[in-house]
Amino acid sequence: LVSLLLLFSFGQVKYAGLTNIIGIASFFLFSLPLIQAWRISTSLAREFDAVFPSAVASVKPPFSFTRIVAGINAPQIHSSSLLYSTKDSLTLDWYAAQKEGDRPCVIVIHGGSWAGGNSNQLPELNTCLARRGYNVASINYRLAPSYTYPASSQDVAAAIQYLKSHAQSLHTDSSNFVLLGRSAGGQIALDAAYSLKDPSVRGVISYYGPTDMVWGYQNPANPLVLDSKKIMEDYLGGTYAQVPKQYVRSSPTASVTKKSVPTLVIQGKNDPLVAYDHCNRLDEQLNRNHVRHFILRLPWATHGCDYTLNGPSGQLCTYATLQFLDNVFTQ
């Protein structure tokens, strides 16, 4: 729209003032996330290191203006498809670590409202993690409404068991897993990490995932954007009035204990699909139980803010993720 207005106004002297105003406003709106990202980056390393000090030499600075364009069309690591559940014909995409030896593994859980999406979602981070020296297993899982909670969390457990049983051939350290999920996958990752109580799961990362399913159902997204109530009903098998225990059991906020694994949560304040207060509610429970965690709050960001890995959100998300992994995998 801005471009059209500028084109329409070009060469028309009487609209020169309007053109300038629109141009200045457009530049400001475009620059605001960059400025905010830079401001966060000036303290992020110090704040993050206070919670998750890394034994590995620091990765790149949290944010760089030049990196926005430097990583365009970067080559990706080829993945192979592995069948991890013969019963349900579930596969995972395997990205082998680009370092020798038995390496830790990050299990990536895609988003898609628990009813869609697949393991091919946003693969750029998988390549980044593999180059860092981590194996990556990006899994497919059973989807709603055909399968309801806790089917997806059970699939995560099945994937972990598969990777443990094939640890030798996959050069995987079977005592070192971290779960990483986006959106609906964030809820699955948190739920599995907190409820499975598997000592090999060393930490969990949630990118803009729901954390309190009861509160989320009672405070739905704008129906013009997303029918979140219907999505949750399909995933949990009914309304809150019909299956209240499903809503409670699937809420990571209800599963937190003093023994819960270290947690990284990334959330944008402008997310219209997963309300910002989800991260606050989990933050409260993690603090109450003295669980090591960090909430990366991005004031400008919306859902899927890491879509462009070298964008302002993508850079900060990747920095926090790498620093978190370097810490929990060396504990």
Short summary:
This protein is of the alpha/beta class. The protein has one domain: 3-Layer(aba) Sandwich (Rossmann fold), CATH 3.40.50.1820. The protein contains twelve helices and eight strands.
Q: What general form does the structure show? A: globular
Q: Identify low-pLDDT runs.
A: 1-8
Radius of gyration: 21 Å
- Give the total of beta strands: 8
Strand content: 15-25%
- CATH topology-level name: Rossmann fold
Helix count?
A: 12
Structure explained in plain terms:
Helices cover 42% and strands 16% of the residues. Helix 5 packs across helix 6. It has an eight-stranded mixed beta sheet, sandwiched between helices. It has 331 residues and is an alpha/beta fold. The chain has one domain (56-328): Rossmann fold (3-Layer(aba) Sandwich).
Which helices and strands occur, and which strands form pairs?
Layout: H1 2-9, H2 16-51, H3 67-70, E1 80-85, E2 90-95, E3 103-109, H4 124-132, E4 135-139, H5 151-165, E5 172-182, H6 184-195, E6 201-207, H7 213-218, H8 228-236, H9 244-249, H10 252-255, E7 263-268, H11 277-288, E8 293-298, H12 312-328
Parallel strand pairs: 3-4, 3-5, 5-6, 6-7, 7-8
Antiparallel strand pairs: 1-2, 2-4
Features:
331 residues, alpha/beta, Rossmann fold, 8-stranded mixed beta sheet, 12 helices, 8 strands, 42% helix, disordered N terminus
